[in-house]
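Troubleshooting log. The previous structure file for this entry was overwritten by mistake, so regenerating from the original sequence record. Sequence copied from the archived sheet and checked twice against the printout by T.R.
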Amino acid sequence: MPAKPVANRPPSTQNGSAKIAQEATTPNAVVNAEAALTVKPPTPRSSQAASNGLIADSRLNLEWRNYTDYFHSAGANHRHAWVEGLQAKYESGFTRGPIGFGFDAALFGALKLDGGRGAGNMVHVGKHGGGENQLAWAYPGLYAAKARMSESTLTYGLQNVSNPFLDPHDNRALPPAFLGAALLSREVKGLALQAGSFTKVAPRGHTNLTGLRTTYGGVPFQRVSYAGATWDYSANGSASLYADQVDDVWRQYYASLQHAIGTVDAVKVTGFANVYSTHDTGAALQGPLDNNAYSVSLSAQHGPHALLVGYQKIFGDQFFDYIDETAGVYLVNSMDVDYNAPHEQSLQLRYMFDGKYAGWPGLQATVWAQQGWGADASAGAGQYGVGGPSFSTIYFRNGQPVHGRHHEFGFIPTYVVQHGPWKNAKVTFIAEWHVGSAYYSDSTNQLYRLLVTLPVRVF
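Regenerated output below.
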């Protein structure tokens, strides 16, 4: 089974200061660590009325990333890699007038220093498989045309979006990207509306576009379309509601609510709850689906120290599944592994440290322990049997239906350089240890990952 893959994602900003409506967020520490591997430049003003022109508002950013990864799991699945990645991203401004037009483009390149047979997308994946011996590769990582009217932007091309279904799974030397159209609108203060439709993906480690597929079922599909909104109803609260359709596989609905009270100087308490509801549609290529998954968390922060308790539950006889190459699983306990087996429950205890409240700005750390229990895939195993369709293999482990308990521990320290010539350079270390039982879907594994990123703004 695929392994997964702190504090809340920072709010989007306008000119780096004024808060604007943000997209859906999550307290999932792994998703947020991936989403913030580098310090992103301030979000430019989105209003077309403030456009200075196609060239005047353009920018060119370089990002160098040192990626080192070691993964060891029971069953002799050992992978290691060391890759240097470089992203050169050009974002134009918009032409002046009621409707502005522009374009984005990026060139990605990588150099492999270590990693061999079995490394897969830790290094390079050829068009027809294999490819681990490739020493260097380069390709157009992003390309898109865009149009903007008022506070709404429509983009078509190879791009990245951020929502509960299509958040890029950015945990390699270079990120994935998706081919399609996306609309982001902030016409109403505090309200962010999204819609989009995508047909292809440029996966991690690949230099070519491939078709979309589900993560656990491995079922290919032609298109995913989505729409949704996030409402920042107060300075301390937000709510989200989204829906997507994966053609001939599922319709999925998502809702979340987050609210905080108090202050960090005393005690700041933040509650979060979200739910995914998944149902088969069309030809039901992944079989009948009737699955609800939810998670809740409560955190308390005083100064630099915070504690979080998270609970997660899967309702239904199927695995909770999501789109491959995404971190489209905003469930709070989807950490090293997803804790997403039929009927599974999980409980997490997490400690978080934020150095800016202790005189060490740029330093953050997260430590967690987690236990999963109650998994029972007997209904799915009985429905399909051993010789069922290809996706039915997820319901079996070592000849029996998936069941049993498992647990994990994890540690993510990160530091962002605050001053000097290396300002905004970021070092992130991820260590995860998972202990799976004999009949649980994810095996015992150890993962150690070091990422050093250096963003440079050329202009």
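The first strand starts at residue 13 and ends at 14. Archived copy saved in two places this time.
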